[in-house]
Amino acid sequence: MSKIPKNLKEKWVSALRSGLYKQTTGVLSHNKCHCCLGVLIEQLGLSTQDKLNIYENVGITCLEKYLEKEEIKELVNRNDILKDDFSQIADYIEENL
Prior knowledge:
Strand order of the largest sheet: 1-3-2
Order of helices and strands: HEEEHHHH
Structural class: mainly alpha
Distance between the termini: 7 Å
């Protein structure tokens, strides 16, 4: 089960549905676009620009406080491979994390 606090989860889901973030794949953020995990990093008050712009080391390590590794992998899969939009990913988060 996810380690993410309920209030952070709600804030993240709300941000994903807000329309304020453009979606990208393969990176946490690039050119003002974010993946679903990049949006979470922003909700934590961290800048994705302070992290690696790829799914490695620093960017993902800061998320492991809130998400299990398998949850991170599933979210990357939904964002990058399945190309779920942020609304679909928000639904998944609400139902599964």
